[in-house]
Structures
1.
Amino acid sequence: MSTTFLPYAERAARLTGSVIDSSTSLLASQPHDIVRFAMGSPADEAVPLDEFREISAATLDHSSFTYGATEGEPELLTGLVDYLVTTSEPTSRDRVTITSGGMQGLDLACKIFVDPGDLVIVESPTYTNGSATAASYRADLLEAPMDENGLIVEALPDLVERAGRTPKAIYVIPNFQNPSGTTLSAARRELLLDLAHRWNSVIIDDDPYGLLRFAGEDLPSFQSLSPSDPLLFSVRTFSKILAPGLRVGWVDTDPSIRQLVVNAKQSMDTCANVPAQQLVAEFIRRGGLSDHLTRIKALYLERKIAMVESLKRNLGDRITMTDPEGGFFLWVTLQGDDAATSTTALFETALAEGVAFIPGPALSPSGKFDDALRLCFATSDPDRIEEGVQRLTRALDAARAHR
Amino acid sequence: MSTTFLPYAERAARLTGSVIDSSTSLLASQPHDIVRFAMGSPADEAVPLDEFREISAATLDHSSFTYGATEGEPELLTGLVDYLVTTSEPTSRDRVTITSGGMQGLDLACKIFVDPGDLVIVESPTYTNGSATAASYRADLLEAPMDENGLIVEALPDLVERAGRTPKAIYVIPNFQNPSGTTLSAARRELLLDLAHRWNSVIIDDDPYGLLRFAGEDLPSFQSLSPSDPLLFSVRTFSKILAPGLRVGWVDTDPSIRQLVVNAKQSMDTCANVPAQQLVAEFIRRGGLSDHLTRIKALYLERKIAMVESLKRNLGDRITMTDPEGGFFLWVTLQGDDAATSTTALFETALAEGVAFIPGPALSPSGKFDDALRLCFATSDPDRIEEGVQRLTRALDAARAHR
């Protein structure tokens, strides 16, 4: 049979997919060795595989394989909340809902708050999987500039005035931002809360990396600055602190909207994978999370330093870069002659050389930053990082030679 | 701080949640013994726990804990397609996308095709988690009547004419329908395809139970009647044939829309839980799925017979019921004096007596069928089924006595 016109929803045109996620399949299909600076994947060494295997053997029983509660496995909710009260961001059981990874937290936030045509402010550059989710709800995205202290919040009132309407939501990654590596200053956090209250806008507070600070001091979280704030929708995940393959995250919201979160999740996937929730719950119950974080923060600091030094050694003043105090990513901007190199075009050359990264335009809804790229320092050890940076340097040399 | 008006999306009013899913938490919170006829959960005996534990120990490695491809783990896609070509519904690799359970398949179908205000035809009664997903996209739901041969497809043209517009989608569960247990006749399948083509409507073909036929003969699937049909969106799951806690399902769509499916999923949860995909892949690779299905079909046939006989013995002509040839559910309609008993009100009494079911109105978007209820025969063994039916009978007696 043939149908020339399929009855797509209007939003289908906004389902653009993710360059980041698609790189998983793309890299898997490459026959040669590739240093992986592209995906934001934890190091293999940072995943406690032996303990996960042991816990899995100890916890898998009939309860693992039947439907779980939509709000999350009770022992995970209890253990997570008990852990978080020991951190700079305490919470309570009536605020937390377990999700299928951080992405589902973003999907939930948009499902609950974003109507077609709503203005949503995003950082520029941003985690485009998050902005793509807002776009899938047909939001109008407004990219707001950043500097070394994160989103330039002071610039928002002018941007909003020019837009002619207030934003429904402001999507922000406050700590070691993906992709820039920058952290939103304390003063800007307070100002952003003031603006959100003035505009009645939701702050979608996406913080996958907050527990991975390896240098400097914690800044006050939005929740600590504005407790019990229904305009604050906080999205968290175990993907970066434990393992992304688990697809276990959580959202932390005012209790007044928690039932709506559960209702929305019931229309999406019933509940998160139960064995993975039990695994995380048991890992936390055994008390290992704090030591684990200490260990992997040291690992990531070493790798961040290795990447910064390797980039300086190999590329010198051909680039500038950010210097994050946590998280997974460095943001590199080409300088001088190299600034004319398209990082989108460079990707193919680099892949052939055996190194993968995310080109800048894939991290901006409007495709800005063709002179920049995101590098993940977390996945590879220092020797591999040096190898990868050398390959990247050869790709940049080749691009310059061909102009 | 106080905010009197939260900037909810319009769809938030349609995020009503699921009585079915919420029963998981409700039942877990009950201190006394309850016979579980409510959730559509496989029997513990139908879950190959020892083999799952053994496979889990054999497969968990670093690849289990990193990001997987959005379209699904390659070995699962390959194994699943290889298995399905041995069934009455063969498919190909370019049609299949792994999902986080069947519910995500329904969410994907609606995300891609359903705009606010679109007409979506649903069976009455229906699996209200599915209709709730369409409602979350602000569809206008049109409930269409059923008989012992499933959806009365012949009635649809009149319903559509009265509605004044053609449906964007028709949501149908063709085999051993949830909740009625009825199967759509072959003639009606052909007629439904004709109507979908005439109206340019998508058939959301939700078939969690098709591989669980324990009596009678397979009917031709929509796909076999209309191969390569882009208007056919088929939603499948391992929840009923293996285990729901895994949250692994798949959608089978025309290759022309598969990229859109992947793009949409990237805005939802990146990928399905990887260890669960590897577990299912290895279970299939070892060749155990066919024998497993043979074994559990015998188990479910025995339980269906036990429930039918127990209901006849205990309730006789106080009820009528359907007699499914597969799947998990019986649909019971109260007769005579008992027809005045509200099954919604009965639920509390029955819970106190120690038996849980789903009241009819929870299986209709408009709350019809207050004289009916859904019973899952799959979860409990014959002795427990008898115990549960006796408790249900006592609850009905009490309800009648109190009128």
Note: The radius of gyration of chain B is 21 Å.
2.
Amino acid sequence: METKLKPIGVIRTPYTNKPPHQPEPDAEGEFYIELNPEFAEGLHKLESYTYVYVLFHLDRTTRPVKLLVTPPWAAGVQVGLFASRSPHRPNPIGLSIVRLKDIDGNRLDITGIDAMDRTPLLDIKPYVRSLDCKNDANDGWRHERR
Amino acid sequence: METKLKPIGVIRTPYTNKPPHQPEPDAEGEFYIELNPEFAEGLHKLESYTYVYVLFHLDRTTRPVKLLVTPPWAAGVQVGLFASRSPHRPNPIGLSIVRLKDIDGNRLDITGIDAMDRTPLLDIKPYVRSLDCKNDANDGWRHERR
């Protein structure tokens, strides 16, 4: 069984060559989402949230999927693909958390996101602090790298 | 442009009729992920994480997508689809955070997840506390409902 995804908008960023490995909340430049106008009504009350999840199509990844990867900032460490945030995944879905700065019609101004300019948007979900902020979580194997 | 998604495993839960609206960490019964064996190597070092994101195909949703919704636990409140976690979305991708209890080969034992039994798995990503736990986030419009 296969599922087809359809872009519902586009993510605009200053990154035309290479995005950073993670969202950079203080990155300079314009970061915004243009939701297709026919979906704008679905943003009602979203402005009450500080943060949102952005799901997007990692459409610029060209490398083949490898099950063991070395994150670019962690030379010498080999981890499983599912223990990494590598964009080269069996299903190319990107997931980032960004701060919502403003909503105007179908445009959402956000803080820095780790996506190439004109990345296809798949979904926006509210980041709910009481559900999503796990204070007893850890940084896993990354902890050793600090 | 369309993207095709392919299941990389299956989520097993006790829910054959209706899942809860959110993951229930203390739910009784067996909750586990069967990753397709050919991807098992990609789990290397994942056991170092407390929590993981599970992305899945909301394949049992039959209702049409509506841009304004009333969450079942919030009678009388109408919010935009993107300000809700409704499963009836333009792109049927579910996102849940669960605690990782054990990994054995290609099987991951997890805490309660809000997915129907045999839901197709799309991705597993590590939940990284320093990136994903936003202590300055809020509960948005839900806050008023408390």
Note: Residues 5 and 131 of chain B are 26 Å apart (CA to CA).
